[in-house]
Amino acid sequence: MTGTPESANPLPTGMSPRPPGRFHGTGKRMGKASVGWPVTSRLGSLPQQQSGKDRGPDVDYVEHVTDLVGNTPLVRLNAVATGKARVLAKVEYLNPGGSVKDRIAQRMIEAAEESGELRPGGTIVEPTSGNTGVGLAMVAQRKGYRCVFVCPDKVSEDKRNVLKAYGAEVVVCPTAVEPEHPDSYYSVSDRLVQEIEGAWKPNQYANPANPESHVHSTGPEIWAQTEGKVTHFVAGIGTGGTISGTGEYLKKVSDGRVKVIGADPEGSVYSGGNGRPYLVEGVGEDFWPSTYDRGICDQIVAVSDAASFEMTRRLAREEALLVGGSCGMAVAAALEIAETADPDDVIVVLLPDGGRGYLTKVFNDSWMASYGFLSPDHAGGSVGDVLRRKDGTIPDLVHVHPNETVAEAVAIMREFGVSQMPVVRAEPPIMAAEVAGAVNERDLLDALFAGRANLADRVEAHMSAPLPTIGAGEEVSRAMTALAGADGAMVLIDGKPAGVVTRQDVLGFIAGR
């Protein structure tokens, strides 16, 4: 790999056609060009990284772990990619902090130091799903800054504990609230910046250093690694920095030949949704960050939670790539593109992080089953079997909205012959996070007769906690456990409420077997 092909634009002045760094070798052959770097030396020559001042001829090291950020390898996907086009994964969990977010941390902090926004002894406050926090915490350690990170409650406990392990303080906020809500993790971080003296908020959603870091690192690396043969770049869209910066570089250097494909969770605004909740972490949004270039993507592929998690688990079992849920989402989108790609196309898909932070979720069978993502065979039947036995003349999910009246709620329950139902913030199909609570016919009638409620009251003033949830693929015995302290349980299929089962439903199913 000695340079770019004659048909490709040269790299910018000072940019090596082959990324210097940790990995060297010939890699797998692609025509006359090599792609990927076998790991023959973890240390190797690192000309662009800080090296020890007193190193001798036999001593090779870097001054700090953050000097190892970047130059991640490409790995061909084989088992999951059955099409003719090559699908190459850029494995970002090999960054020292374990994710692509390592790339933006140092650039954002250095820019803030240069502008005077961040001064010695200051505090870094940032809303983060975990990965950006790790990158910021590593750089902050080196430079002597305090870190306070604000996470949504859907972020796994493992990821929050990682932030704490790096010495950061973590504040947890609810997911299912509007960005403008005072309890949203954006609002809470803004408030903390005002309350903490010397605080600075990187605001990766609006910081130009975010996409710039990828213009100067990720994009050039991919171009050099593929010797200009890359035809498609696929990445998930979160802040938009990765896909915007990398896409900008690849489009420019290829004269627009490279197609940029965004992968997005169903419900996110990027793929046409309105920001409804989803379970995949670290991608998608319910607003438009300024770090995202709306004109950069040639196509955006919406991927369901179910497809994302299935592919994430397949990558570990079939490709030995233990990665996060957003990686499965990106690969699912890349494989959709590969179905119609030409044999000579080279599709590079970015895998933003590793899977060790998701062991209690995506890689936990119990968690997956509880959300209805797994459907194992049970000799005694499943909760889904109970649900399918119910009266087919009524809607799958009888529900009411928070702003409807008590009178309307009572009328709905009478019409469909149910004694309890969920209170939801949207129309089906809804996500579990959109369930606001539940109403019970007995409780409403008691409140009406006792004078604690009026028929004109809004339902939200008299609703109770949401019904317990259970996955459709779980055993029937699990339904009885869930119903031990409740009159009904909400059944989830692929993370979405699909109906309600009661004790009577379960008993009827058992009696009819």
Entry summary:
With about 525 residues, this protein is of the alpha/beta class. It contains 15 helices and 17 strands. About 50% of the residues are buried.
Describe this entry's structure for a reader.
By secondary structure, the chain is an alpha/beta fold. The protein has three domains: 67-95 and 219-358, Rossmann fold (3-Layer(aba) Sandwich), CATH 3.40.50; 102-200, Rossmann fold (3-Layer(aba) Sandwich), CATH 3.40.50.1100; 373-512, Roll (CBS-domain). It is built from 15 helices and 17 strands. It has a six-stranded mixed sheet with strand order 3-4-12-9-10-11. The chain has a four-stranded parallel sheet with strand order 7-6-5-8, with helices on both faces. Helix 5 (209-216) crosses helix 7 (241-253), helix 6 packs across helix 7 and helix 8 packs across helix 9 (325-338). The chain is globular, with a radius of gyration of 26 Å.
CATH hierarchy: architecture of the largest domain:
3-Layer(aba) Sandwich
The CATH first-level class of the largest domain comes to Alpha Beta
Number of helices: 15
State the share of residues found in helices, binned by percent.
25-40%
Q: Please indicate the percent range of residues in DSSP E strands (runs of 2 or more).
A: 15-25%
Largest sheet strand order? 3-4-12-9-10-11
State the major sheet.
6 strands, mixed
Distance between the termini: 66 Å
Residue ranges: pLDDT <50 for 5 or more in a row?
1-47
Structural class label: alpha/beta
**What integer value in Å does the Rg equal?**
26 Å
Globally, the shape reads globular
Mean pLDDT over the full residue set:
88
Structure summary, number of beta strands: 17
Oligomer: single chain
In CATH, the topology of the largest domain is named: Rossmann fold
Number of domains: 3
Enzyme class: lyase
Catalytic activity: L-homocysteine + L-serine = L,L-cystathionine + H2O
GO molecular function: cystathionine beta-synthase activity; transferase activity, transferring alkyl or aryl (other than methyl) groups
Domain CBS: 393-454
